[in-house]
Amino acid sequence: MFGAALSEHPIAAHATGEVVGAVLERVGEGPDVAVLFATGAHVGAFDDIARAVRETLHPKALVGASAVSVIGGAREVEERPALALWAGAAEGARALWFEATALSDDEWVFRGPEDDELSAGATLVLLADPTSFPVSQFLEHTRVHRPDVRVVGGLASAGFVPNANRLTVDGETRSAGGAGLVLPAGHQVTTVVSQGCRPIGDPLTVTRAERNIIYEIAGRPALERLLELLETLTEEELGMARQGLHVGRVIDEHKAEFDRGDFLIRNVIGGDREIGAIAVGDEIQVGDTVQFQVRDGRSADEDLRLLLDGQIAEGALVFTCNGRGARLFGESDHDAEVVVRSIESGAVAGMFCAGEIGPVGDQSFLHGFTASVVLFGGRATDRPLRLPE
Fold first, then answer.
1. Per-residue pLDDT band at 298 (split at 50, 70, 90)
2. Gap between the Cα atoms of 145 and 21, Å rounded
């Protein structure tokens, strides 16, 4: 059983009482896990809030983070005082701190759980401070040393300077590092990573590249390929391309066909007409399959709906980009409303992030403009998909 609650009361003590009371009524005392999200207005009282949740709800594992905006049920409260609390069943789950120490600009030492606490097949829900915990390097470290561990979550976003955010693990509050909820192997957990893009053109093979520069695609200059593609787009697609053009890189090259969820999306950050190359926000290898992509509110809506199509679950955590919400869709509550349709109990909570974490293929990455959703107790259904007109 899962439950979630949202309070917009500006006084932290009142808001805490409202969300704890509602969750207690739904799931009872002593749930296996609880996850707390608080907007910036409650950062000063975050320690008291987390302690009150632990002492009243008595979850076996508690993690939480501060964010610019939070999600509760079908609601998204953007840049206003709000608390969201989510709790439910996840036997054996543990809440743990993760720490990082820099040895140089590009070398870090990570400290976290022992091997038996983060074993093969586990899922790690990670809430991290963006100023003190290098998530991209941590994910690379995890891919090398613990490749069978799936990592999902997001970066705290209440502030973007040191000590601006708050994290909690079992009632202890810090302003740096990462708060992790480890779900052992065997839990029925499904992840949906909606990067919000629409593919244009066809998937093609990179035939010459160095680091993040693509010189040739399918034997021709990359920029020439791109300009040729732009000439075939509709006016709507051209408008999206002008707002921001992206490249999707296939993660699992062994697949016979590629669909939306097979691509890791990265920005196109420049082009050089003289040499015919384009630069992207990721390292590209010769032999990689790439496809150009565009993004707007409509494509982001379609992508999330398609990826959630046929999914039904008992509870969900949502980590959505702080550039989505009303900024992208023109109205509030979009991602929350789409996700809650797949949740039988309505137990949805989450936060707007400064970067979202989730797997593409069998590897986890740090994303932008993405909705990373964790479904608990999920199962497939054959209900028909309805896209808006």
1. confident
2. 41
Q: pTM, whole model, 2 decimals?
A: 0.92
Using DSSP, state whether 148 is helix, strand or coil: coil
- Residue-wise pLDDT for 323-360, tens only, equals 999 999 999 999 999 999 999 999 999 999 999 999 99
Listed residue (226, 204, 347, 328) closest to 279, CA to CA: 226
Upper half-sphere CA count for residue 47 (Cβ side, 13 Å):
5
The token duo for 65 is 């983070």
CA distance 109 to 284: 26
Three-state DSSP at 117 gives coil
Q: Domains of the chain by range and CATH?
A: 2-194+300-380 (no CATH), 198-294 (2.40.10)
pLDDT by residue (tens digit) across 207-239?
Answer: 999 999 999 999 999 999 999 999 999 898 888
Higher pLDDT, 130 or 103: 130
* CB-based contact 265:321 (threshold 8 Å): no
Crossing angle for the helix pair 12-27 and 46-57, nearest 10 degrees?
A: 30
389 has pLDDT over 60: no
Phi, psi of 180, rounded to the nearest 5 degrees: -120, 140
Q: What span, in angstroms and rounded, lies between the C-alpha atoms of 244 and 227?
A: 15
The rounded distance, in Å, linking the Cα atoms of 199 and 258 is 11
Q: Cα separation of 299 and 24, whole Å?
A: 38
Which residue reads 């990082």 in tokens?
100
How far is residue 358 from each of residues 218, 288, 363, measured CA to CA in Å?
Answer: 30, 21, 8
The percent helix, strand, coil of the chain (3-state, each to 5) is 25, 40, 35
Phi, psi of 60, rounded to the nearest 5 degrees: -70, -30
pLDDT at 317 over 80: yes
